[in-house]
Amino acid sequence: IFLTGEMASMSAKDFLRGCHESIDVILDPQCSPDGWYPFREATSTRKRKIAPQFRSKGIGYIRLGDDMGKHGLAFLSSDACHTFLSSAIALTGAKNVASAAEERKICDRKKNTVKISSSRMINRREDNQEQRKDTYVSDENDEDLSLSITDDSGESDNAGELLKQIESMEVSGTTKWQEKEDLIKRLGKAASSSDGSQFRSGALNAIQDVLSSKNVNVHVLRSAVLAVGRIGKAMEKHLVTQMSWRVIMIETLKLLKSKQACAVAKETLKQLHGRCYTLGNSLTLISQALGLGKIGQSGSGKRQIKKMGSNTSLASIGNEGAKKAANNTELIEWLAEVTEAERSMPDAVPMIDKAGLCLLSRFFLSHKDHRDSQCRKNVLDGLLHTILYGINQLGLKDDEAQSLCCELKQSNPKGWKSLVGTVKLILAKERTYTNQTPNIGGEMQLSV
Q1: CA distances (Å), 180 to each of 4, 183, 185, 224, in order?
Q2: Band of the pLDDT at 389, cuts 50, 70, 90?
Q3: Are 150 and 229 in contact (CB under 8 A)?
Q4: E strand or H helix at 27, and its extent?
Q5: How far, in Å, CA of 168 to CA of 158, rounded?
Q6: What is the DSSP string of 52-90?
Q7: So what's the pLDDT on residue 232?
Q8: Residues paired with 26 in a beta bridge
Q9: Mean of pLDDT over the chain
Q10: Are 232 and 252 a contacting pair, CB within 8 Å?
Q11: Percent of the chain, pLDDT > 90?
């Protein structure tokens, strides 16, 4: 069939009419006799090499289509890209018109974006990270990043039936990620309702298996984290008593390093902080997420902290762990924000004690020599709020609280001087203006 020239029986638009899948285009460069094939781009300042199929007599092909392998016509044009074949095809019949209108509605919904930015951040940190802020583009199923569980619109699914479907889906192993994502979201909504309270433990176990699995689709991971947020808001303090919480917390902290799931993980942890968990019952999990081992504040871990006593032992453990996990910039930033938020929570239960506060300072000091300058600044911010936490929440004396991070005095005298000066300035303002909240520390800037 000829589509061009005098012998053409139809146009390319008519030939491809009704095609909604991807299109493979064969590239067969032609030239006049004794002609030549270009080797580099003429318009490029760096004179980049042209793709092999254009600079040789070889034949190649390009597959046109979106990431779902559809709509190849949207990438083909017969008039130098002024219009494209998908927009030039006349739709006939009420069915085609309805489907086109539905596609436009979906496109309009997908244009809505939700920008997630962390609250209570130090102004300097906001300026330095303006280019690093991630924009989370929502789709039809990810419109609720606020993790609100008060929206009871529509009928709730049966949590028990959803659990059975997920279990059978794991056994078969042939379920597509879209179906799995939808099931997990529905499970989170059903288990967070009053009728699904008896299935919450089973739902958390299923979510634990998803988060701890390897090579999981990022959409499935995000739906699992959102489901944890919904169920956690319903369970409140009982969430941390679940056996699955340990794995869920560690894997969610690790997702802070993922560009695709960072926004959802950070928002979920923020929503659950204080309501479900505090630093007082999470130091062991944070330590493991940072790669510093299983030193924590529960059981034998708490006795181990009190028994060690010396700063040298704790520092050596922290530095050794930091060598094994160097990519902890996002985790340290999150930890600094949580410390800042919790020091302003008068009703935080359980509250971190002095031994745990010493361990918290070790987390920050273990990254004081990190190669990333932003991480080092987050370390200073975390140490600042650690000292203020001890003074405001535990009633420690100024010198006693500052001794938690005296190791910084030797390794970074400039940072230590700036840290101590900022602490004194904040305490002076807090003690002078007693009616102001103790969160004015977030306005201060530290220099490395």
Answers
A1: 47, 5, 9, 10
A2: very high
A3: no
A4: strand 23-27
A5: 16
A6: TTTSSS--EEEEE--TTSB-GGGG--SSTTSS-HHHHSP
A7: 95
A8: 61
A9: 75
A10: no
A11: 35
By the 8 A CB rule, do 51 and 59 touch?
Answer: no
Q: What is the DSSP string of 79-119?
A: STTSS-HHHHSPP-SHHHHHHHHHHHHHHHHHT-EEE---S
The phi-psi region of residue 147 (left if phi > 0; otherwise alpha if psi is between -120 and 50; otherwise beta) is: left
Q: Which of 86-100, 189-203, 205-219 has the lowest mean pLDDT?
A: 86-100
21: helix, strand or coil: strand
Integer-rounded Cα radius of gyration of the chain: 29
Whole-number percent of the chain with pLDDT over 70? 67
Contacts 24+ apart (CB under 8 A), 439-444: 439/120, 439/340, 439/344, 441/340, 441/384, 441/385, 441/388, 442/120, 442/121, 442/122, 442/123, 442/340, 443/122, 443/123, 444/122, 444/384
Contact criterion met (CB below 8 Å) for 30 and 5: no
**Amino acid identity, position 391:** I
Give the span between the Cα atoms of 356 and 117, in whole angstroms. Answer: 29
* Total residues belonging to the chain: 448
Which tokens go with 267? 């928002």
Q: Tens digits of per-residue pLDDT, 75-129?
A: 888 777 778 887 533 333 334 444 545 555 555 554 443 333 333 333 444 444 4
| Residue 426 confidence (pLDDT) above 60 | yes
- Alpha helices in 148-299, H assignment, sequence order: 159-172, 177-192, 200-212, 218-235, 245-254, 262-272, 283-290
Residue 436 gets which letter from DSSP? S
CA distances 437 to 237, 344, 385, Å, are: 26, 8, 14
What CA–CA distances, in Å, run from 43 to 9, 90, 294, 407? 37, 37, 58, 57
Please state the separation of Cα 345 from the chain's center in Å. Answer: 25
Query: How far is 204 from 239, CA to CA, in rounded Å?
Result: 9
Distance CA 335, CA 329 (A): 10
* Residue 269 pLDDT grade (very low, low, confident, very high; cuts 50, 70, 90): very high
Taking the whole predicted model, whether its pTM rises above 0.70 is answered as no
